[in-house]
Structures are given as structure tokens and as C-alpha cells.
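Observation: inputs received (chain + protoporphyrin IX containing FE).
Thought: call the complex predictor directly.
Action: predict_structure
Action Input:
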Amino acid sequence: MEIEVSANTMYYYTGLLLIFALVSTLASHYLFMKRPLKFRTKIRSPPSPPALPILGHFHLLSSTLPKSLENLARRYGPLMRISIGSSHFLVASDAATAREILKTHDVEFASKFVFAPSHHNIYRDAEFVNAPYGTYWKFMKKLCMTRLFAGPQLERFSHIREEETSKLLGSLWRQSVGKEACDLSTELTALTNNMLCWMAMSKRCSRNPGQPKEIREIVSNMMACGAKLSFAEVHGPLKHIDLFGNGKRLRMALRKFDMLLEQIIKEYEESNEVRDPSSINEEKDVMDILLETCRDPDAEITLTKDQIKHFFLDLLIAGVDTTSASIQWAMVELFNCPEVLTKLRYEIDSVVGSTRLINESDVPNMPYLQAIVKETLRLHTPGPLLRRRCNTVCKINGYDVQAGTNILVNAHAIMHDPDTWTDPDRFIPERFMKDSDVDRKYSAIVHSQTMDLRGQDLHFLPFGSGRRACIGVGHAAIVMHITIGVMIQCFDWKVREEEKMNIKVVTGYSGAMAHTLLCYPIGRLNPLVLMNGK
Ligand code: HEM
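Observation:
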């Protein structure tokens, strides 16, 4: 139930808050002026727009936060100070400043500050994505890179990706035969959620095929409650009051997730106790590996159950919507740029042909498909603001940065910087093509042809950069290339004109699509036949 706040109540609270701000400003001014001059050190701080009491720069920001920060940076420079309520940040908005923070001073900035409502989190101090740079984070990062999500480890899960892609194609084919409208958002979120759930706990999923759907419902409810918390409830004076009850709803959703994971962990532990020693080499899922690490007496640290539960939550929150939204944006751009779609189809037909489906080993031979993926992630990055916390005093761009300072690296601004990218708001995959193929007009400013997805070049950082860069980049890249590729290989797509207007509208701080993406798949090659051709 939504609680309505009457205008009178609003004025009453606003009045109180303004009086409080005035008193605290005067008090701090008085205290500061009373300090002898010799104690005042000269600190060179980055510039900042004029701020209001209490609100800070809140009035200068819109719901598309990265865009409004980009506009402010044009006026106040590539490193500026911004305040939102009681939270203060430095915002870095160009590649050179990002390089200082994420490369030159990578270790000093390897922790993160928490932008989300962390005080409602029932797993306090058990998180991985927001963990400070220390023993636990280093241990988990190593585990991710050696045993869970990197290189050959990803190969292990290829049958899961194949199986889920087949299910998606089967569903699209049925809709094309029935001439039904297809809700691409729902289809793609089911695909990315199912893949991660199966990789994480395939044993549980094979016993209970409805499990990924149940998990998705709980997690999306949790994310919806989190998104409803306003700035005032997260950073401002309402932080500890939970006036609208959103915090309580969020905690309830977290408890539901906790009960489910508790039960799943118990099942895994019981099945391990009765495990036949001959099955020791059978395929291990992520849960098996984490529980094995728990039991390992030589492990550097002993994982707690809360850490395992939170790790799964982190994967689902970080990996499901980001990947599905990126595939949706690629499809939208292809619907709107028929000439790009035609070029992609030409590449598919010449590299793969029409007797089998695209597979993962085809991707290195498909530069245009790779360029489409990169250009989509540049234009519609799902992680537009990278969070960091400085753990020591240092200098960035000649300005003094104090220990404990919160930093936002505006990846959106960097990937839309007109000094780097020609026509930065246009979808032009050609800018990522190698010299021989390139339309030179678009590759003139930076060497975009050699940029990879891992943020080595700080002009292009859709998965972040440095120590805290995304651990799922390998998985996400495979899923994006294959899913976009097979959807274009097997179907033509029809989108109503009025839908085309709607689909470009974005919302929220990550620039997600504001409307459901409805379209009509028209069968071109029968995926069920191609799957048999492999
Ligand atoms: C298109 C899909 C994805 C995009 C665009 C994306 C983007 C990002 C970005 C921008 C960050 C922050 C990096 C930084 O601060 O430097 C991040 C972190 C992270 N991502 Fe992804 N991600 C995607 C998919 C995934 C997937 C599939 C997984 C899980 C398998 C995942 C797991 C994580 C985790 C755990 C972190 C936190 C890493 C840390 O703090 O050490 N992401 N991602």
C-alpha cells in the first residue's frame, strides 16, 4: 500500500529540516572560525557547483543521474565535488582522470562505498560486491578467477548455455508460428536468470526445474523494494525512520531468500555426506565448490553460510538484468538500423551458413557481431557509475583527495565523450572494426578498433576497470554474442511504429528501457532443425 504524504505534512517536515540545516551550518561555521589559523591546512579541493543546505546538489540532478553528472562536468571539469543529502562524492568524468583512479592508484581506490540501502541488509558484512578491499574480497576474487568464472572454467558450463539458448529459440519459434507478440524482456531475463541459477546450483535445479523462476521472483521483488527507497531514505534524514515501509518490505524479501538458500545448502550438505566416492569427479556446480572450500582445512579463510548466501545474491543482482538489458538494447538498435542488421546477417551467412546454429567457437570469426556488442555496451552501459572509496591520502589531477573520500567514475560520460567518440549518441558499430574494414570517419579520434571489453583502455569500460572490474565479463560476453547472433540468424523481426517511439525511452540511473519490448518474431530458419545440424 502506498502512503500519501499531504502537502501540509511536507511543508512541516521541510520547514523543520531547513531550520536544522541552518543551525548546523551556523554551528560548524562558528566552530571552524574559532580554530586558530595555524591548525588550518591548505587543501586543494576539486571545484563544485553551488549547493543548497541539506539538499546539496540534489536539485541539479535528474533521475538519469549519469547524464546529469555528465552535464555538470562540462561546466565544473573532469573531477568535481558533488553532495546529495548527507553523502559527498568526487565525480571523475574523463578517461585521463579515470586512468589515475583505476590504474595509477588502483590499490588505493580498491574499496567501494555503498550507494544502496545497506542498513536494511540482513547479511551485514557478508557481501562480496561491496566488500572492502581485504582478505575476504581477495580470497573470493581468486576463487572466481581460478575456479568459477574464468577461461577454461567457463567451458564447463557450455552445455547449460546451449540448453537455455535452445529453450529461448523454441519459445520464439512457437510465438512466430502462432503470430503472437513476444515480450522480449521477459524471455531474455528468463534466459540469463536460468543460466546463472543452473551454473550456481545445477543439482538443485535438476531436481526442481521450477527453482530458477522462484528465485527470480524473490530477487526481482527485492530489487523493486530497493528501487522504491528514495534518496532521502538512503542518504538523507529519513534513513533510520523507514517512513514508507520500503525498508521493511526489503528485509522481508531478503528473509525469504535466506530461508530458501538455507534449505538448499542443507540439501547439498546432506547429499555430500552420502556421496559415493566414485562420483568425486562428477561435474561440480558453484555451490559444490563453495561448500568444498568451506570444508577445506587448508583454505586461507573459512567461508560462513551468510557469505555463501550473499555471494549467490550478488551474482543474481549483478549478472541477470545487466546481461538481458544489454541484449535487448542490441536488438532495439538492430530494429532501428536495418543497414546494420543486413550487414550482420551477411556475416552470419558467410561464416556459419544456414544449416547449423552459430556456436561459441564462431564468435572470433565474426568481427561485425563483436563490434555490435561493443557499440551496444558503449551506448547503453548498464553499469554507468563505478563506485570507489579512497583508503589513503593522495593526489588526483593535482587535487588533494582525503582518505575515506567516495568517488564515482562516470563511465557513461567517458563512453559518450565527444572528444573521444565521433557522434557519441549514434549507434555506429563500424567504429570498433579493424582498419581494413573500417569506415575511417568514425575511428579517427581514438584507437577504438583495438579496445577490448575488459577496460584496459580507459576510454571504453562497460565492465569497469582495475581490481574491482566485473568478474562476469567472460560469461556475459559469450551470452550476448550467441543470443544476438542466433536471434538474427533464425528470425526476422517486426516492431510496430508506435513501439519504436517507446523503446528508446529510458528510466532510472542505469538507463534501462522504460517500456516492455514487444515485437513479432517471423521465422526465417527453423532453429529446431538447425539445432540437430549443430
Ligand atoms: C552485460 C553484462 C554485465 C555488465 C555490463 C556488467 C558490468 C559491471 C560493472 C560496470 C561492474 C563494476 C566494475 C567496476 O567497478 O570497475 C561490475 C561488477 C561486478 N559484476 Fe558485472 N556486469 C555484467 C554481467 C555480470 C555477470 C553475468 C556476473 C556474474 C557472473 C557479474 C558479476 C559481477 C560482480 C560479482 C561484480 C563485482 C566485482 C567486485 O566488486 O570485485 N556481472 N559488473
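Thought: report the result.
Final Answer: The chain has 18 helices and eleven strands. The longest strand covers residues 79-84.
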